Amino acid sequence: MNVRLFTKAQFRIGTPSLADVTSPVDKEWANRIRALAAEKDAVILAHNYQVPEIQDVAHHVGDSLALSRIAATVPESTIVFCGVHFMAETAKILSYDKTIIIPDERAGCSLADTITADQLREWKAQHPGAVVVSYVNTTAAVKAETDICCTSSNAVEVVQSIPADVPVLFCPDQFLGAHVQRMTKRDNMHIWMGECHVHAGINGSELKAMVAAEPDAELFVHPECGCATSAMYLASEGVVPAERTHILSTGGMLDAARTTKAKKVLVATETGMLHQLRKVNVTTVFEPVNRAAVCKYMKMITPEKLEHALVHGTDVVDVPRDIADRARLSVERMIAIGTPSRVGE
Ligand code: SF4
User: Fold this and answer.
1) Are 269 and 221 in contact (CB under 8 A)?
2) CATH for 8-108+298-314 (3.10.180.10, 3.40.50.360, 3.30.470.20, 3.40.50.10800)
3) Is the CB–ligand 1 distance for residue 225 below 6 Å?
4) Ligand 1 atom with the shortest distance to the CA of 86
5) pTM
6) Is 84 in the pocket of ligand 1 (CB under 6 A)?
7) Picking from 161-165, 233-237, 311-315, 328-332, which range would have the lowest pLDDT averaged per residue?
8) Of 94-103, 223-232, 251-260, 294-303, which range is least confident?
9) CA 251 to CA 232: how far, in whole Å?
């Protein structure tokens, strides 16, 4: 693979003050949200793909696994998870005794939805003896049927940790699977053909044309969340120039944004990430590779729903204890094998 893989810590922890909130209306709302959170002994976690208002009011902003790990260590008894459902479930798995709330439980994930626990059991039955590796974008029930979870940044290491003669079932992201297969040169890897709907907005010809039209721009590819694993796959195939292409975790992307000398950076990921990049560097122009790369599920979490969630304590995310216990094993194996501080999901 020619492209540079940055390996810095993956998340920005915290929005310790509300200094980022500038409009008086927003400030009033933000103060109300923080007061409600304090009253309810709640901490607000927001994924990078949330709308800017929610990112700015949250106590912590980051990627899903980073937020789950924060969830396990914060002292508050309630966690309001502004992200999609499987992420809130992962927080529950890792901090079972806490109350986890998502402002809208209908915020799902098209990638996680491409495989159910029943389908995975059936697939396993067809390949006895295979080790199941699942991307973290899966439901708790699928994680419970999984041997080892992985993220986009440590998937190669996770698969490499499995003896070469043992077959691997990789699900659900076909692009990440294809990338891992090429990197590990494994011929005993079976890949589930799932994908994220936001992929559709980041295709090869568009990526190539946009990079060619901007010869001085750098390209940041953030393979978080499945939405840009196709771009990661294309970058590692040499579709775009290696010297200008950086595959970055969240933290690596923010570090690179702070130090880049480029006038323009093209960003291949869900557009929510641009808010963080523009905040850390106001002189470089950050443009999405595709403006339509928007996760409709992430955007189901609105400021109004966050307030409603804090006032009413809904929607509570629960995972049956036996499923959580089994799912936790697959997540902990990933953490033991890989380099969880540089995960990109
Ligand atoms: S961007 Fe794609 S993978 Fe991420 S939550 Fe949305 S639908 Fe799921």
Assistant:
1) yes
2) 3.40.50.10800
3) yes
4) 5
5) 0.86
6) yes
7) 233-237
8) 223-232
9) 17
